[in-house]
Each structure stands twice: as structure tokens, then as C-alpha cells.
User: Fold these one by one.
Assistant:
Number 1:
Amino acid sequence: MRVARGRPFKILFFVYQCLITLLIVLSLAIITGIIYRVFFYPPPQKGEQIETSRKSGKGQTFTGIGRIRIQTLDPQPGTVILLVSFVYYPDDKAFSEELSHKIGEFRGIIEDYISSLSIAELQTLGDENIKSELLRRFNNILRLGQIGTLYFSEFMIIG
């Protein structure tokens, strides 16, 4: 059996050597970055990262509850279409996770409250009073943070 040692073999060997060299350089760069991060970069103080994002105004709108359609208490029920949102800070990982786990409970709170009212009561209360009551109920079930203000992107009463 004869081994080919011509020009194609030399080209493939050169490419192989280049790839190995590139792999070694990248590995060294990653290891150097890890060593720098571990030994020379100070860890953030507890709560520092969260406070920094709040001060810089990097809040995002939480719309995970989605659009909800609820029937009112009237004998001929009307329908309320509601899209609730609020500002949260995604850097606060624990609170963000709690919010995502509570979406079902938020929806239940909204449905229970709105379905216990008639169209006339909803119109009398107005959206500000409804927001403040829902906000109070939301914050009662939260343990790792509080919601500051609720917003209604949609609030329609059809009846």
C-alpha cells in the first residue's frame, strides 16, 4: 500500500496545522478571559446590579398576562377585553422569574374581579380605580418584589 505524499497531501496538512493553531489560540483567549474575570474583576455587591438598572431606567414592559376576555355579572353578560401591562426590571432575575410563574394567578385575579362586577359598576368605578384594586391584589401575592403601576393597553366594555 502506497501513501500519497504529493501536493494535495501537503495542502491538507497545512490546513490541519492552521486549524490546530487557531484552536490553541482561541482556547488560550478563553482561559485568559476566565482567569481575568475570576481574579481581577470585582463581583457586584448584592442588589447593586438591580439598583443600577432601576436608576438608569432600563425597565421593560411586562405583557405576559396577555389579552383577557371576561364576561360581566349582568343578566345579559357583557364582555370586557383587557390587556394589562406594567414595568419590571429584567436584571432582577428572581422577581422576573416570580412574575413569569404568577401569570396564571394574575389572570385569575383579573377574571375574578372583573366578573364580579356589572357593566354599570365598571363604568362607575372607572379604569383608575380598577387598576388600583388589581394592583393591590397583584402585590398581595408577590413575595420578591412589588409592581409600581399597572397600565391598560386595552380596556373595552362591550355590552
Number 2:
Amino acid sequence: MKTSVLLLGCLLATASMAQSTSKGREVWEWKDANGVTHYSDAPAPGARKIVIVGATQTPAQSQPAPVLTAPGATPVTSARTSQAQYSSLEIWSPDNGASFFGADAPVNIRLRSEPDLGPGDRLLTYLDGKLIPNENAYEHTLSNLDRGVHSVTSVILDAKGNEKIRSQPVVFHIKQPSTVENVRNRGPAVRPPQPKPGG
């Protein structure tokens, strides 16, 4: 019986303490003739006031969800999100309208941005609308390109995929070297030099 009364008293105390914490009410404690402890929000003869230390609960602040990454990779958190504002993104090599001769001629693509790429941002470069491998690279070397006109452009995206800045496209040409030979320089058409009259 005493155990039941004691448990009931503890429950009442807990509820009373929670109520006093949120509303600022006082809690009183006393023991009856049987030694059973009682709690109340109103004072009683011989009761002592309990001082509750605590503060009104504040709403829990929302915490950013953890970012899962592959083992060994550096996690990208909101603290590493770039706030960079880019004033320029430029393809400075090759020159616009440049020509390269031969399918195996290497074409060096070089980029520059102001400022440099910020953490969390992505630098993507496209050849004829197709993504060139090696994301975030400021240099690419292309070869074995088809003969004709090609276009290169670059873009910087934020961590959510929103475009921050785009470069002007650069156009270049792949041309095949001429293999036509002058027929006059072959076979019977080749004649020894003729002596000059009077020579």
C-alpha cells in the first residue's frame, strides 16, 4: 500500500514539477504521520517549498540532415557551401575561330574564373553539348576529334545544381591537311632543266 502511495506521489510530483516549470508555479513537499511523502502545488502545514531549477523549454532548433558520402570522401556540409560570387568565367584557350590540322592534333582547353572555384561549387565543361570528363578541371586536352566545327562552353553550378555563371562559347575548326600532290611533279612530267640558248 505504501509503495502504491509513494508511486502515486512521485507521478504527482513529476506532473507538478513539469507544470511549475512551464507556468512558474511552486511545489510543496511534506510527510504525513505514516511517513508517506506528499507533493502539492499549494502549501500545507509543515510543508517545505521545493525550488525547481530549470527554464522554460525552447523549441528545438532544426539541425541540418547529415550528408552521406562514400568511404574516404570529404563530406560536404552547409559550412562548406560556397558563397562565391563569380565575376567572370572564360575559355582563354584556344582562340575563338582557331584551326587545327589533323584528327590527331591535340586541342588544349584552358579555363579561368574570378574568383577560383569555391567549395561545393561545380565546374562543368561541354564539347558540342556533351559533358567533358574531369569535373572541376580548369584544363582539358582533346584529340581524335571529327573534322568540322566544334564548340566549347563551361558553366559553374552551386551545390544544388543552380547555375551561377556561364562562359561565352569558343568555336574552333578541325581540318584535314591537304594530301593532293601536284601531278606536274611526278613521273614523265618531271623534266630535266633545259639549257639556255647560247649557254
Number 3:
Amino acid sequence: MLSPAGPVYTIVVNAIRNSIDAIGRDGAIDIIAEMETPDGRNPTVMLDIYDDGAGPRKGAEDRVFDLGFTTKTHGHGVGLALCKEIVSELGGTISLSRRNENSDTARRGAHLAIRFPAPSLETA
């Protein structure tokens, strides 16, 4: 039986909400979900959420996961901190980076990368 997916929904919903806030009316969000087995034995869930909004400010990429840190005028700094805690409890990693570091425009975009071990299967 697979582990419950409930915690993953919290992560994805928060990420999509942040992306929607970032893109405004004219942007796009791409979500890629894959399962990979890099070592040939232990499958890893890979979630990549891309948007074409402004992207994180230079130097803020690591701080966005700190409880209370926000770049939004009406934010509380809880969402990504909670996501990091959930991903850590799943044994995984989460990172935020600019989607296009070399862009000359204000819309560099963001890439939220989430990796965690696939839930184990139990047979009865």
C-alpha cells in the first residue's frame, strides 16, 4: 500500500499559489512530475514547478524557506517554511532558484525543485 499523499498536496498547492501570485495575468506555470530510479533500486519522486514571474530576488533563494521570511507585501512567511518541513520529514529536498538567470527582462521566472523518496509499497 502506498503512503498517504496528503502532505504532498500541501506542498503542491502552496507552490501553485505562489506561482499564480508571481505570474499575474499574463504568465504561465509548468508542472512536471516524474519518478526516477537513479541508483537502479530506490525510486525518487521529482516535482518541478516553473513559472515565468519575476523570480526570487538575488540572495533570497535560501531565505524563502525560513519561517517568517516573505517577499510579499501581504505574506506571512509560513508556506514555503512548512513545505520545507514536510519535504524534510519525507526524507527529501526542496530548492528555489531563478528559472532563467541570464534573462534581461524583469520576468526571470522561478523553479521550485522538490525531490523525495517514493513511498514504499507494502504487500499483504
Number 4:
Amino acid sequence: MKFAQLFILILAFLVIRPASAGLLIEPVAGFSFGKFEVDDTGYSSVDMSGTSYGGRLGYQNLGFQLGLDYLKSSQSVDDSDYSSLEMSEWAGFVGFEFPVLLRVYAGYIFSATADGKYDAGLGKKDLELSSGSGTKFGIGFTGLPFVDINFEYRAGTFGELNYAGSESTVDTTYSSYMIGISLPFVL
């Protein structure tokens, strides 16, 4: 009986680590799908889907997380007038990793841009969306070693539209879901 107790005690010391704070580095990759709408263009919404990649850099202590988040998406657009969109987002995030299998996080997107081409009867011309902001919410399954499976929702608005050299302040809204994996490292 004493051997079993000693074995369990040694195993506990090797497996259980004291809580510590550290640098959070987390590469992210996934598949996004959603829609966007440009006001005053006659479209109710345009569907988009594609790959996304990026990462998080921050601080983690006792499960709490705080830091910056970057995401770049290459979106195919389900409309013959558009070509694909290249979207880029910077966000600040906060999160909490529960001791068992689950992590939640939320963020404020403070900078978002998108580039693509649009055909308004003039041939495909450059389309640029800028001055974007919005929010993001996510939940992650942390049960696999070194890998998190995440489901994320993002929504925002672009404030400026530049089409073929002509700028306007038309509100363009977007919303997107992402299913992805991440590799969180706490150093």
C-alpha cells in the first residue's frame, strides 16, 4: 500500500505544475464563412468563404488571457461581380481558459481592411474597404494536447469604401464564422 501512495505522490509532483504567468503565443488557422453587405448597392448580402490564418500574442496568468489578435482571410465571394476579398483584422482580446476542456474569449476589432475587385459595368476595378471595427467572440475545446479547436464569430463595419479611385463613406457590414485550430504556447 505504501508503494502505491508513494507512486501517486511522485506522479502528482511530476504532472501538476504550480500556476504561473507567461507569454502567450498562439498561431491560428481555419476556415471562415459569412456575408457582407455594401449599403446603397442593391445587394441584400453577398456570401463569402475561405481560409484564415493569424495568431495571438499576449499574457496568461491563472487562466486569464489578455493580448493582441491578428487574422488574415482570403475569401471567395459568391457573386460574379466580385473577385475574392483579402481581409485583415487587428483586435485586442481577453479570455479565460478553464481548468477542464474549455476556453472562452472576446475581442474588439480596432482595425480592419479588405481588398478585392468589383465590376460595376466598368470592368473589374480595385475595391478597398478600410476604417473597419467590430467585435469577435470565441469558444475553444482544449482537450487535445497542444491543440485547441475553436469556433469564432466576428462582426463589424467598414467606414470607408474606395472603388476605382473614388472614395466614399458608405457603411459596409460583415459577419463571419470561423472553425479553426490553434497551437497555444505559454512560455
